[in-house]
Design a protein that fits this description.
Structural class: mainly alpha
Shape: elongated
Oligomer: single chain
Order of helices and strands: HHHHHHHHHHHHHHHHHHHHHHHH
Mean pLDDT: 85
Radius of gyration: 31 Å
Number of helices: 24
Number of strands: 0
Strand content: under 5%
Largest sheet: none
Helix content: 55-70%
Amino acid sequence: MSRQAKPGSKPYRAQLRDRLTALGFPEEAIPAQVAKNLIVECRIPPRAAWRLASELSLDVAAHQYNAVTGDPRAGMRGTRIWEYEQWPDRGVRPTVAALRVLAQVYGTGWKCLLGLRDLEQLPAKDLAEYHADAEPAVVTVAQPEVPPARTPAQAEEEFGAGALGDALLLTTTNVDDVQLDDLWSDLDFLGGAYTRIAPDSILGQLAVIADRTASLLKGRQRPKQTQDLLLIGAKSNAMMAWIAGDLGRYRSSRELNSAAWLYTQYADDFLARRWVRTSQARVAFWAGNGIESAKLAADGLNYHVGGQLTDAPLILAEARGWSSVQAERKVLDAIARWTAIEDPDLGAGGEDKFFNITKDRRHYMAGNALLSVGQASAALREFTTAREAFEQLSTENRWEAMDPMIRIDTGRAHLRLDDLEGAAAQVGPLLDAGVGKQPDMVRAMLKLMVTELAGPRWRAATTARNLTEALLDAHASARP
């Protein structure tokens, strides 16, 4: 067979049939051998391989499908068969009933239309039916081929004949631009939707993207497509780690961030490294590892990406990390660097609405870091700005957790300034309305305020005791 024919193409299949005929295969056995070759040598999925081996177009296959069912108007279309062939990467999962009919059309058994990747995605019921069926699944093992003897003249003619075919392998891909655009679009949507959709729901949808990406990476793509998939894998895992941390699942967060970082190493992309370092710094801080958080954030700043992801989230994460060990000089230095670059117009998240946090969240982080190193007055100014920015945001751009967090830390700032009544006035509306389910950090801040109210300064105050009881009730109800 000339290697100039595109693998899997009609000329390729015609040449393959001629070779099989020359080897003595009977006519009725040739389609199975062609399908086997297309699956093993050309990496064509089983359902498409068997249709091509039967030399059927999508529309003709659909017509014959309807004929097998006994109802020409049964409704099978060529587009639906194409969707069956795209699954599990995209498209539609075929039912077992549909597979049985297709198998009759192609002259094979239904189990031959499923590959290993298909089986891994089958519902438990269908997989059980697969194993229960006595029909054997054809094992697609490439048979050794004995090339015919060549004359010296033929050998000279064929020298280098395979070079083009080998190079053309670089154009073989299991993914197209539409799939990549869909994955990026889904990531962008989920990044913007996190402020208004339940975290568990977002986490589940991100897991689908991550699994789909990992599955595609097991196949062959063009180099640029592989790069895109690696970036999608990095971002989806980093986002999942961030959200899992919000839910208090820190062990899962660390594993997801490790996976995300591995993707970035292979992608060798500075923006991806920033995504992951931002997520790692956030998770480390709320897990109680402030110094590690600061160092991760500082490392993230080494990857310069222009305006795609501003320095603000990482600088503020660095400040907050150092604040956990009262490293006041380092905190104030980081806050000064952030103040110098703060863009007040970056109000809705900038280009990346997930990692480019909104203005209210930036000023809250600054206030939280300042409060932790005893700068209560400066912190109060930042919390006031955070409150104003939060209220100016449209509902869809608000992260609901910010309202309780701003109120709690503003209350804590009032306590540091010996203003118990001011603290009560800040958290009172929150407690009256009910905290509801909140991310893990809201519960952490509620507990921290309870600890501060229990100190010697407020222990004897009735207002402090009443406030403590209300905060403890809120802490119990805020479990995500």
